Input
Amino acid sequence: MSEILSSSAAALAGKLSAGELSARELCQKFLAALEADGHNCLIGVRGEEALAEAEAVDAARARGDKLPATAGLPLVIKDNIVLRGKLPTTCGSKILHNFASPYDAHVVERLRQAGMIVLGKTNMDEFAMGSSNENSAFGPVKGPVAQDRVPGGSSGGSATAVALNLAPLALGSDTGGSIRQPAAFCGVVGLKPTYGRVSRYGLVAYGSSLDQIGPLARTVEDTALLLGVIAGHDGRDSTSADEPVPDFSAGLGKGVKGLKVGLPKEYFPDELDKNVRARVNEQVEKLKAGGAKIVEVSLPHTKYAIAAYYIVATAEASANLARYDGVRYGHRSSKAGDLLEMYRNSRSEGFGPEVQRRIMLGTYVLSSGYYDAYYLKAQKVRTLITRDFTEALGQVDVLLTPTTPTPAFRLGELMDDPVSMYLQDIFTVTINLAGVPAVSVPAGAVDGLPVGAQVIGRHFDEQTVLRVAASLEGDE
Output
């Protein structure tokens, strides 16, 4: 059984297509693994529904129907991606503890069309607000390598499930690093696609101009496979780009000979953990050995990124989360009072402290007298950061940076220090502000804890990003 659970998604797809493995058998093995999970990765599991879908795939294959290559492959999805059926979509929050979606997200529709089977919904920081997966109403996820360490956030449940072989693939969402940072901490691959590459229809919004759904997997090949399933235009999302979807797997074996790789000097500061620096430098040497040309570049407005990000993101969160008022759906306070008291009590009881902190910050920066001083200025800085990336990526094919400044920290270590927690995103938030694609790929370990290297590319050039990531894979 362990051999099946640790197999790549690509290998499992081959076994399913060849009839060496039934979709039901595969589904049962992973469901059993999920039920035995001791890391609190899952918020809910779709046992009966998943098995019924697996049986339907097996029946279609037995009839000789032409099926997608991914038919029968199981995966888990983050609990801010809506899924119709019995399983609630909670976003890791008390305020949505009983919300059952009447419709599927666009990415779920794509998964169903590809014959893939959602096994369950993964634990997450409440409304995707966090860098440690400690802000969930369902309790923290324990790291896959050391249970006293965080798995990263906010897609920590998805990354941990993949790292522990509880699922071959997972979907997460990334607003400021929420796929890449957990991928780095858990020793897996995590991709934030270009903003607009994957439809946000059915993704519960945190920061609408920053959010993007993306894949987590154990290999770059599997990451490319899942991206190919979920990418594409969707008219229901006004920010969805009508761009052709290439074969993301096509260039994975081409190597890096002739490519220019930029090292942004701002991402290698003196304060960077020396062991993280050493692991990333080893990846640089791999690229050199493969024939890539290494070039130092500059992203001069990086120092303003955290401030700009936490103004833009919280402002959008304040607007997006105004809808949770206890009237139409979700938690409603049982305390008596007038309408205003009901709003206040429902939101105070339903939202956790980190979400409340971000709503208050976002409301403040949007308020009269402060809009120009904070929000408008942050948007101008965002434009400068985007320009930095455009100019740097005009000189090179990709950029290479650390994904995180340190390996995974201990559970509880930064919970009372929100500024230090926010600084964990220093190497990832710029990518969301600029809207470019980036992938975190395992880059070895520091004291037994995984670290990641981040490959950043031009808008809609995930192919080159994945090509470089594949050349870094293995032999850490």
The first strand starts at residue 42 and ends at 45.
